[in-house]
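$ run holo --ligand "magnesium ion" --emit tokens
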Amino acid sequence: MRTIAVLNQKGGVGKTTTVANTSAALAASGSRVVAIDLDPQAHLTIHLGLEPQIIEAGSYKVLTQSAQFEEQIMLVRPNLWLLPANINLVGAESELVSVVGRETILREAIESSEDKFDYCIIDCAPSLGLLTLNALAAAEEVLIPLQPHFLALQGFGQLLQTVDLVNKRINPDLKVKGILLCMFDSRASLPNEVRADIEQFLNNARGTNSAWAQAKILPTFIRRNIKLAEAPSYGKTIFEYEQNCHGAEDYKKVAEFVHAQFHPAVQTEVPQSATAGEIQGEDEPVAAPEPSSQPETQTPPEPPAEPAGDEQSQSMPPFEIKSIPQSEPQTPTEFTPSNKDPDQPETGYGEY
Ligand SMILES: Nc1ncnc2c1ncn2[C@@H]1O[C@H](COP(=O)(O)OP(=O)(O)OP(=O)(O)O)[C@@H](O)[C@H]1O
Ligand SMILES: [Mg+2]
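-- output --
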């Protein structure tokens, strides 16, 4: 399982939109994805069609160690599970203040599900508090959505320093993998200037031991698109709401990038000295790797068959978003032992 924290302490930069749509695209292409809502605003939960008021506790219960991770996750689309949030999560920070090891609770909670999912994607709150530290302690990769406007880089250094600190003290596997430019207008000069500044900043870190030494700006960016802003109010992903818009096109490319770049099989092919830019060539989207024996049908999480050695790269599913119906979201089903059983009837999303 690759665990990716989508993080920026600035508000409204596109974190939740990125988690919802990237998770949906990865799930629709056959990967088993669990998304975690680690923001008391519960925007991811709402975006994926759930009402936070009916959520008993979700991520709050997991962080306060009063429930197991798998008891709290819900199947919200085929191949896509969600650990939902509600406003209770606000209390978690103060309740945990005297708990020893409070930064690693989430990491320990998801550890036993390692083999059940291909991706765990965490939507962080716009802060660098304890909730975000839990995300950073649990993740291997950080993806930073950034809106390239005036002051976009203000706080960016602090964000990277925080990741670096967690990397040095709590989680040596943690790396900033990518910067995703959201609501980007390539025709305007300011976004391009901001982009150049970030590139310069990242280039200065190449070859150092900082946690962002290999970070790169994703070769694809997210255009400003009204459909992306409308979809959450219907509880739909962009692929369900309007699959032929720019937003859907852009997030499909992000998912392709994540699928290729973040997959361990691909990483093993990367020479140690190569930077992310060298890996794939400037501004060229990465082709999805060769494919695989991923089952066609929707099945509950089960440990994937371990490929041996060089065959690992062949285990990657082809990146293809299968058809997504335009119907209203249906009632999510709890992830319980009964819907983990392949002999049980499928959930309401079975026909997806
Ligand atoms: N590319 C886009 N084009 C137009 N609107 C967008 C785009 N991406 C996101 N939005 C809208 O901008 C707002 C902020 O996006 P989003 O909620 O994803 O940001 P966030 O970083 O998660 O915010 P917060 O820090 O509050 O959690 C939302 O209303 C969202 O629908
Ligand atoms: Mg958000």
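-- notes --
The chain is about 35% helix and 10% strand.
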